[in-house]
């Protein structure tokens, strides 16, 4: 792309693109690569895994993240495979409703519903769009050990929870900490009308739509290590909780250790050429279901700022990105951590009384 970086001709010019390396081909890394390719940047994507990972269950995509996907040219691909999430409740183990999740309010305010999409579909859509744009093939089997060796104009650390880019450029004060809660996630091959979360003493069970004919579920119980432990912990809970556990092959369950980044990073950017997105920047517990949304919002905001400033003004672009995203993403992470405490309390009486004050 020919451009006049300094505007010396007095014309309104497109900021000059540059070169970028994106580390990690998860949701955040692929979205960042798409945004940069759309701005004309030359992009390499390095992924540690040897092939695309096609596992994972459902992601909630909030309307703000849908708008980010629209700006990245992926809105239609998302809507083709996603289901609206319109009605869900928080319940007690006996099935009595404590409160409604505010999905209608979200839809009224945004003019579109929250969507649910399976992780493999979202990853496939991102890979297809990157392929359509051309010029960048994900380089699999490239687990980066020393990010300082990368010489591109821009390095995007999208390498998840244990980010090597974060460690190399931001130090180890902010580290991923475990919370002692293990969640199990799975997909059952039947649909249910009952969606939302059911909260018991120190444990919870959630269920959402994911695609026609299937239900996404997740569950956390202290000390449960086997399928038998998990099934026993939810025995006697309201329908369809035991049926969902009984109806999913434990070989397909995903074990998900709950972790978060602590303390929060003082900046998402470093040295005028390194930026973190997604879990690398703000790994959070999954309680608010915002892991994919925040990664998409980061990637879109970063690449919009970089496209607007061009490679000649990268430090300014990265400052704009940090200003737009850091506080917002860290607020979501804190909210998710707080909800994790609330949901897993071993003294549920006060919690249920408080939640009972909300509209059912
Ligand atoms: C296989 C998989 C399945 C998941 N399933 C679910 C799920 O079912 N439900 C849910 O809520 N969340 C799931 N998550 C987490 C969720 O995808 C993220 O929390 C969220 O989407 C943020 O995405 P991210 O791109 O920041 O990080 P991630 O999705 O974790 O992507 C990071 C990528 O970076 C790669 N990587 C890491 N280190 C290096 C390195 N040194 N060099 C090169 N590449 C590296 C990883 O292999 C990975 O592909 C899953 C993550 C993965 C990787």
Automatic annotation (TrEMBL):
Molecular function, one GO term: monooxygenase activity
Stretch forming the signal peptide: none
InterPro entries cross-referenced by the UniProt entry: FAD-bd, FAD-dep_Monooxygenase_BioMet, FAD/NAD-bd_sf
Domain (FAD-binding): residue spans on this chain: 20-333
Keyword check for Iron: no
Keyword Oxidoreductase on entry: yes
Lineage: superkingdom: Bacteria
Alphabetic keyword roster: Monooxygenase, Oxidoreductase
Name listed for the protein in its UniProt record: FAD-dependent monooxygenase
Species whose genome carries this gene: Streptomyces antimicrobicus
